[in-house]
Write a structure and sequence with these properties.
10-stranded mixed beta sheet, D-Maltodextrin-Binding Protein, domain 2, single chain, about 800 residues, 28 strands, Transferase(Phosphotransferase), domain 1, alpha+beta, 7-stranded antiparallel beta sheet
Length: about 800
């Protein structure tokens, strides 16, 4: 069953005959609804009305503005008129370009929530902080509120089901479906949500004509419509490229979701169905304005999966689909380039079919072609992955030398002014300090001309080929290679589809990108067997993780090693946003030493208070991953020269007192054990796992690790500084990344490389050497980075 079919049935649309399309699992939905309602009434939360400090929502100038996370739903929600156009393109332009018009006709039937009023959900009670709704739309109100248990700020979106639109049966059906669809897990196996705004809680009160959608606010976010209104000018072509790329990444994730329904059925493929300037949020990654800084992130909210449930039964809408998502993205990208949705002179929406509307943005020809294909004015893309690949591989072709925008022009002028001042300063330095000053002047002069001296080009990108297809001198024939299927990272890449593109494993992606080397993959159960196969000339080379002195073993066996990426182990503890103050990362100051790890994992201490008086008085629960390579590396590094503690570590594993579990399952246990409201079941868990499985989630916090006073963090912010417990790992995704320098320099103690190993024999080394060259291209390094590995060199973002 396609999930698009689910969306079409769950939406409960009425045709002109007003016949209700029923959800296929109606009986199950009623059971789930009744169970959830019982949960609401069984929740025992201390009730106390008090005046709390009002949470500031969104951007405020003279008036309060709604949090853009929920500032809007699709403009298709406006009005009850059943008028429609038979031209889908006209409908799309109208839906994406229209702004919301507050209509309180139906709101009078259902009184708004008042300040300090509480509503009860599955996660506890929520207390309204705003004086009534902070903003109203057709059948929708928004409120700022807090979670009573911990004073956590939330945003409540109230959907109305007025009697004038919905009879009791219709209202009940839609509330049942609302509970079902908002409970669907829209996160990947690793916990990533790919910048999707989903429900923190969802409530459908049994005896009320409304539903509540509760989410965590995204700090410093505004909608794309608010952005255009604020800056009063178009986005640059580079900014629009970034918007398209990020949205396509999220759509790729959505369109390839495998979702388990309440009846146990698994569906594939979920369209957003509601892309507009109001449902996309933009967040700057630093203190600089997003107007002049390209660094920003785009979040997607208001999925049609639940938004469509509250549309008027008489309204006619276009069914959600993958094709519609791409077309909607094309139109809103076009509007971003225009800086508005309507021509103020003629009062009509800008039309991409009118070439005059492209006259001011002719610089980037390839971007125009991509938008044409998204909209369907040219050969359409097959899917989001196809579109994203075209975007990433298309150059920015400038027809003229004029700047992309006034902002860029001002920036260049300022840069020229600063450059002149800098040159004058360096001349003075040269006169004062002789040769040293002259040398510095040469460096600055080279930079100002766009030429970086080899001395400063740390990434050394020029020595590598950009693209897989451009490699030369690739040996002909079919070659065999191997790795360990029991613990090898490469085997995971070879057996897991969809890591870098839809339905493809990494070897298929390499072939699709023009790899000329013909290979056959023959994994072995253990790395020792793979090495023996190379020695016996049954395979030509192997790929292995360099752990537990395997590199010395390979070199002794006359193998050459070429690292192509880094893997690493990360130590983690619970990272609870709800209990951030006094949490484990805070109490540990974001780090842990080898000595502390030895005491924990040898069982010398079993309560966190024994480790540090600042830590919570909680029992310790220990986790390890299923990957033997990670356990070996941890054992060798942490227990080196401590044989008795190492023996105790091994014994605890055998006895099951150290829990061995798949890391992705451990993450939820660690957070759940810390956040449980039952004091008798609460514990402080610590575990470790592979970086590629930890990076990008936010249920645990990765600790800096090393000898006492020399701890190193595996993740850094975009400015190069370490992450810290104050950073919001959930909402600040994209503002931090693996510490490439620490991995390359081996400063991070748990870093180890994945390498191509081939015989040190000129007649047998060609295949292995050629494959290593392939994996060191810019293109392959980016692919490895996308699957969660750390590149062996700094990458050129172009």
């Amino acid at each position: 069953m396609k999930l698009t079919e689910l969306v079409n049935t769950v939406s409960l649309r009425f045709r002109e005959t007003s016949v209700l399309v029923r959800y296929p699992v109606e009986n199950i939905s009623r059971i789930v609804m009744n169970r959830i309602q019982n949960e609401y009434h069984n929740i025992d939360v201390p009730f106390k009305k008090d005046n709390r400090e009002q949470y500031s929502v969104g951007i405020t100038n003279d008036t309060q503005v709604v949090t853009p996370t929920h500032s809007s739903i699709s403009s298709e929600l406006q009005g009850q008129s059943s008028r429609h156009t038979d031209n889908p393109d006209t409908t799309i332009i109208s839906n994406i370009s229209r702004q919301f018009v507050t209509n309180s006709t139906h709101h009078n039937q259902i009184p708004p929530l008042q300040k300090n009023e509480d509503i009860r959900g599955r996660r506890g009670r929520y207390r309204i902080q705003s004086n009534g709704a902070i903003q109203e739309f057709e059948r929708v109100r928004l409120y700022s509120a807090t979670h009573v248990l911990n004073n956590k700020p939330v945003v409540i979106k109230e959907y109305l089901l007025p009697d004038t639109d919905f009879n009791p049966k219709e209202a009940r059906e839609r509330k049942e479906q609302f509970e079902l669809v908002t409970s669907i897990n829209l996160k990947s196996g690793g916990g990533q949500d790919f910048r999707l705004v989903t429900a923190w809680d969802a409530i459908a009160p049994l005896n009320e004509k409304r539903c509540y959608f509760i989410t965590e606010p995204i700090a410093n976010s505004i909608t794309l419509r608010q952005y255009l209104e604020k800056v009063q000018r178009p986005m640059t072509s580079m900014q629009v490229r970034e918007v398209i790329g990020q949205v396509l990444q999220t759509l790729w994730f959505l369109h390839n979701q495998r979702i388990r329904l309440p009846n146990g059925e698994v569906c594939f493929g979920l369209p957003h169905g509601n892309l507009s300037l109001d449902s996309l949020l933009i967040v700057a990654t630093d203190q600089q304005s997003i107007i002049t800084n390209q660094q920003f992130f785009i979040y997607l909210s208001d999925l049609s999966l639940w938004e469509d449930l509250f549309k008027s039964p008489t309204s006619k809408v276009i069914s959600p689909s993958i094709d519609k998502d791409l077309k909607d993205l094309g139109y809103l990208s076009f509007f971003l380039l225009q800086g508005a949705t309507e021509d103020l002179i003629y009062g009509q929406p800008f039309d991409p079919k009118n070439e005059q509307n492209w006259s001011s943005i002719e610089e980037d020809i390839t971007l125009k072609r991509i938008i044409h294909r998204l909209i369907g004015l040219d050969a359409p893309f097959l899917n989001a992955d196809d579109a994203r690949h075209a975007l990433l591989t298309s150059p920015t072709e400038l027809q003229t030398s004029k700047p992309l925008s006034t902002e860029i022009d001002n920036y260049q002028s300022k840069k020229l002014h600063n450059s002149n001042n800098l040159r004058l300063f360096m001349i003075l330095v040269g006169l004062l300090f002789g040769f040293g000053g002259i040398f510095l002047w040469q460096v600055v002069n080279s930079i100002s001309k766009g030429k970086i001296p080899e001395l400063m080009n740390l990434s050394n990108n020029n020595s590598y080929t950009c693209c897989i297809a451009k490699l030369k001198n690739v040996p002909s024939g079919i070659f065999n290679y191997s790795t360990s299927s029991s613990e090898g990272t490469w085997n995971y890449l070879m057996t897991t589809p969809g890591l870098v593109s839809v339905g493809k494993k990494i070897n298929q992606e390499l072939d699709a990108r023009g790899m000329q080397l013909q290979l056959r993959y023959k994994p072995e159960p253990f790395i020792d067997l793979a090495i023996q196969k190379v020695k016996a000339k049954k395979v030509d080379f192997l790929i292995t993780n360099i752990v537990a002195d395997i590199d010395k073993h390979l070199e002794k066996a006359n193998f050459k090693l070429q690292p192509i990426a880094y893997e690493g182990i990360v130590i983690f503890v619970a990272f609870s946003d709800a209990k951030r103050e006094g949490s484990f990362p805070e109490a540990l100051k974001g780090k842990i030493s080898f000595e502390q790890l030895r005491k924990l994992y040898s069982g010398e201490i079993n309560n966190w208070k024994q480790l540090n008086y600042n830590l919570p008085n909680l029992p310790v629960k220990l986790y390890i991953p299923v990957e033997e390579e990670a356990i070996k590396e941890f054992r060798e590094i942490v227990f080196d020269n401590y044989p008795q503690q190492k023996q105790k570590f091994n014994q605890l594993i055998k006895e099951g007192k150290i829990i061995k579990k798949e890391t992705l399952k451990t993450l939820g246990d660690v957070l759940g054990d810390f956040e449980t409201e039952d004091p008798s079941k609460r514990s402080g868990d610590i575990g470790f796992g592979l970086l590629r499985k930890i990076y990008g989630q936010c249920s645990v916090y990765p600790l800096s690790v090393g000898e006492k006073g020399q701890e190193v963090q595996a993740l850094v912010q975009t400015d190069g500084s370490d992450i810290n417990p104050k950073i919001d790992l959930c909402n600040d995704k994209g503002s931090y990344q693996p510490n490439i320098e620490a991995f390359n320099s081996k400063r991070y103690p748990f870093a180890y490389s994945m390498a191509v190993a081939y015989p040190n024999d000129e007649t047998r080394s060609q295949a292995g050497k050629s494959f290593a060259e392939i994996m060191l291209t810019d293109e392959a390094q980016f692919l490895l980075n996308e699957v969660g590995l750390v590149p062996v060199r700094k990458l050129n973002n172009n």
